[in-house]
Amino acid sequence: MMVSKMNELISLIVPVYNVNDYLNCFFESIQSQSHSNFEIILVDDGSTDGSGETCDHMADKDNRFRVIHQKNAGISGARNTGLNHARGQVIMFGDPDDYLESDLMEKAYAGLRKANAQVVFFGYYFEGPNGEREKRIPKYPLGIYSNSDAVEKLLPKVIGLGFYDLNGWICGRADALYVENPAVWRMAVDAAWLKETGIRFYEDVPIGEDTLFTSECICRAQIIHVTEDVLYHYVMQRPDGATVSYGQSAERKLNGKITLLRHREELRKEVIQRGLPDIRRYYEGTTLMSVMELIFLFAGSTEGSVGEWRVKLSSYKNMPEVQRVIRDFSPEKKLKPKALPFLFLKWGWDGVLFAGAKVLSKTGYHLNR
Questions:
Q1: Which domain holds residue 304?
Q2: CB within 8 Å of 298: residues ≥ 6 apart
Q3: I need a surface site. Which of 1, 72, 86, 172 has the fewest CB within 10 A?
């Protein structure tokens, strides 16, 4: 790939769903971009709060904004619609309740093209509901990665947690459960490469869709550039953010975890076929932790009885991949309180786990990852 003239069209894909109160700030940050050759694809995903009309008004004022109205298909469906309509040579993503640094497109684009990469990752600002603001630079090493190096060094902290991480959490090691934010708004991707690979968002995955998309990009890109540029503002100013506002019922989370694991296993097989190491060890701790998360979620749910949820849990717990990690995991410190639930799980004491989770849920306790 040859370095371009550095003025290619950038397509920024934005799913819009009931975020009308935040659109003006987002639009202003886009119009202030130092790289002006862009198109903004606003996918109104069945909004009912006037967001679609606000997008239409913006498109009337600035022809770089394009609006697509559709019935609600979820965030993955909205992003795939955007991919279908994108005309740019570079693809980026954004959430409309956040905002961009004025040089986001310029620097992300430069980081992609100057490294002749297919994917570039950059940092972001986390802005909390109480006014806190934290700069978050990628914690994995900065630099340019080949495919095999990216799978070995970048993927582990995106796709999930291993047994080592889980044991670290049990033993109280600091940052043991650290996972790099897999959000797609902190990356830029070469459009031709993305189309060639066929990477898309899985519309059957209600949770973890960014993790899968980012993981597939890491596993398939020939060159990835990780920069220290901090270019995006992730604003956690409300409980129902752009992605969360689609809603997550307990049963939907169960089905999501089942589907997510299946897609991870499909990616694993593809990676092995290419002669790269088995990546299952990077997410086997996540697989096991998901059992605990579901137990606590179901025990505290008002949607059904504990007995009903125990039956539903078996659809995840009895998957061969889950049974394997339950069998293979061994806590380093078996007498640590955090280790006991995993031992109960290994011994088949599901009733004890649900009873304990039920008691804790009444005290307002949530499983702290």
A1: 250-362
A2: 250, 254, 304, 306, 309, 310, 312, 313, 354, 357
A3: 172
User: Can you tell me the distance from the alpha carbon of 210 to that of 158, in angstroms, rounded to the nearest whole number?
Assistant: 10
Whether the Cβ atoms of residue 65 and residue 37 lie closer than 8 Å to each other: no
Kindly state the DSSP code that residue 16 receives in the 8-state scheme.
E
d(CA 256, CA 247): 12
Say if residue 101 is in the same domain as residue 214. yes
Task: Name residue 10's beta-bridge partners.
Answer: 38, 90
For CA atoms 241, 245, 246, 247, the dihedral sign is positive
Which uninterrupted H or E stretch holds 135?
A: strand 133-136
Measured distance CA(347)–CA(65) in Å, rounded: 57
Residues in contact with 118: Cβ distance below 8 Å, sequence separation at least 6, in sequence order: 112, 189, 190, 193, 194, 217, 221, 222, 223, 224
Q: Both ends of the chain: CA-CA distance in Å?
A: 42
- Residue 277 DSSP one-character state: P
Residues 21 and 127 in one domain: yes
Rounded to the nearest 5°, which phi and psi values hold at 234?
Answer: -90, 115
Confidence of residue 244 (pLDDT cuts 50, 70, 90): very low
Residues 238, 336 share a domain = no
Is 67 a domain residue?
yes
CA pair distance 9, 24, nearest whole angstrom: 23
Q: Residue 288: which of 322, 263, 260 has the closest Cα?
A: 322
Quick one: 320 and 192 in the same domain? no
In a shared domain, residues 232 and 116 = yes
**Contact assessment for residue 90 and residue 63, using Cβ atoms and an 8 Å cutoff:** no
Q: Is residue 78 part of a domain?
A: yes
- pLDDT per residue over 2-44, tens digit each? 444 578 999 999 999 999 999 999 999 999 999 999 999 999 9
From 182, 202, 203, 199, select the one nearest 190 (Cα to Cα): 199
Contacts of 53 (CB under 8 A, 6+ apart): none
What tokens does 349 get?
């004491």
Alpha carbons 272 and 171: distance in angstroms, whole number: 32
